[in-house]
């Protein structure tokens, strides 16, 4: 009958807006996944608004809820993990991932090591060694750091092509990660362009170039990670470049529609901690038609060399 | 550009499966709503499995998160409230609803007074007087009790048509509720049939008759409440009978597809606290095509007299 695709997604929940699990869930559902959301936090809205109310789960609360799932023997083809609120929450997710891989070694674990952006950490420093430990375990299939997170994980500044390749190599070898996609890498000389750089161990890296929209969006990385998970499940991990073009294509169309909506409200782009942010929440519900377009893309990749 | 429809939905969240907000959200999103989910509990799965892990929010936690939303001045056309884990959580939701109606008197508040089913309360008794107080406030637009909840709220046994009409009248007059839809009313003599009975104050009640599927489903009431909310928003509260047929039609198709899936797994119906339950979780992701069918229905209503 219907294909059964189940993913356990552990990251944040916001009541209003689209980041974390609120950003990941609908697109995955439209693409046929039952999404089991384990919400590691519940916030009223994303932190970009400046003011937030809400609650975080402790590491043991996360583990308890997972034990509830395990008792019922639900089966998962994938684990998606994103923002986690503390080092002990990351430790708990390590235990969850270890357990899940031990019952299904083919399970895809996409780990988005959400730690910060644009030169700024938004987690505590003690989270970093725990992510390093997880990455070294060999249990994670695919990671999607942004360029800042790569710098944090590798200690290598991504200020040249040579260094990007060095960092990819470091993550493949030292961290035992087979597949890597680095999002939002600034172009060295052209600030209207953003790069996505991907790499599978022992293969040549690839790059996707895209025009940057001059506004501020949140939840984009979470949307990308979710779509990439679907896409690698669909096209196979051996086709990471093709899978990445499909995910990028959908993210890009979603951002364009979101941006047009903001403009239609006479809000010319948005800034952090500003009332304008609510007009630039990802327009996911209004992009359902986009999420259901599976094959079509005009995004191209090329060898990164 | 796109229609903006925003609903604040306050009820339970389960990581796996479809009850509460997990049952309400996807169908509403497919029908164009941005659904702000304030999850009053986070459980691993619904309680029918017999074993559950998870956490409940206190009343003050619910109010704090709402204060976060209020600070950003998000606007809502509707409030949907379902299962709440304690009397103080119900009190908190009363404050939320009061505040929201004070800023938007046209807001639809659909309250599903989730207290129990089939003769059994699954909330503490102290919840009952709080629901009665809310219903008497005149702030609630529409309620969707099942027949047991009507008996709890009115003290009238729904064992005859006369008594059903007496109970509807009691709820309109004593509780100041303009619109009522009672779900899952057993037929007096034919246990293959379920009735849905609706009523708008000062108008004749209506009834919808449906064949009962011989299995056990959870989250059906939550799905119905969400679809009815969309439906009354679409057709207008003055067309409650038509709106109800549209919602029932979609619920019915969803149950049929869910049932067929269970059968395809060689599980002939499911029982409470049994491993078979996971095969009878509502197949919402596999019913997206059904949720997008707006106008079409073959469900008929007739006068209940």
Explain how this protein is built.
- Chains A, B: Keywords: ATP-binding, Kinase, Nucleotide-binding, Transferase.
- 2 copies of one chain form a homodimer.
- With 305 residues, chain A is α/β, with parallel strands linked by helices.
- Chain A has 9 helices and 12 strands.
- Helix content of chain A is 38%, strand content 20%.
- In chain A, the strands form 2 sheets. Chain A has a 10-stranded mixed sheet with strand order 3-2-1-4-5-8-9-10-11-12, with helices on both faces.
- At the A-B interface, α1, β2, α2 and α8 of A face α1, β2, α2 and α8 of B.
Radius of gyration of chain A: 18 Å
CATH class of chain A: Alpha Beta
Written as H for each helix and E for each strand, in order along the chain, the element string of chain A is EHEEHEHEEEHEHHEEEHHHE
Percentage of residues in strands of chain A: 15-25%
Pfam families (chains A, B): Phos_pyr_kin
Keywords (chains A, B): ATP-binding, Kinase, Nucleotide-binding, Transferase
GO molecular function (chains A, B): ATP binding; pyridoxal kinase activity
Organism (chains A, B): Starmerella bacillaris
């Amino acid at each position: 009958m219907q294909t059964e695709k189940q993913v356990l997604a552990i990251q944040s929940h916001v009541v209003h807006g689209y980041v974390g699990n609120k950003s990941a869930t609908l697109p995955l559902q439209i693409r046929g996944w039952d999404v089991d959301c384990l919400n590691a936090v519940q916030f009223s809205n994303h932190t970009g608004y400046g003011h937030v109310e809400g609650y975080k789960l402790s590491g043991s609360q996360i583990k308890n809820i997972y034990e509830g799932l395990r008792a019922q023997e639900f089966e998962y083809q994938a684990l998606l993990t994103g923002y986690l609120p503390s080092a002990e929450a990351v430790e708990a997710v390590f235990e969850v991932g270890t357990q899940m891989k031990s019952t299904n070694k083919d399970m895809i674990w996409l780990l988005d090591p959400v730690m910060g952006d644009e030169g700024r950490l938004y987690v505590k420093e003690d989270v970093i060694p725990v992510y390093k430990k997880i990455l070294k375990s060999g249990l994670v299939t695919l990671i999607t750091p942004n360029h800042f997170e790569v710098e944090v994980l590798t200690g290598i500044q991504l200020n040249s092509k040579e260094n990007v390749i060095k960092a990819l190599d470091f993550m493949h070898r030292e961290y035992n990660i087979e597949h890597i996609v680095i999002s939002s890498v600034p172009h060295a000389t052209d600030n209207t362009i953003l790069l996505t750089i991907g790499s599978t161990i022992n293969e040549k890296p690839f790059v996707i170039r895209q025009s940057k929209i001059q506004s501020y969006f949140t939840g984009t990385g979470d949307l990308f990670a979710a779509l990439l998970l679907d896409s690698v499940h669909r096209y196979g991990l051996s086709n990471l470049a093709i899978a990445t073009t499909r995910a990028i294509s959908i993210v890009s169309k979603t951002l364009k529609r979101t941006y047009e909506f903001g403009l239609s409200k006479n809000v010319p782009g948005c800034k952090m901690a500003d009332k304008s942010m609510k007009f630039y929440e990802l327009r996911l519900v209004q992009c359902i038609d986009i999420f259901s377009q599976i094959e079509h893309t005009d995004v191209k990749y090329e060898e990164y060399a």
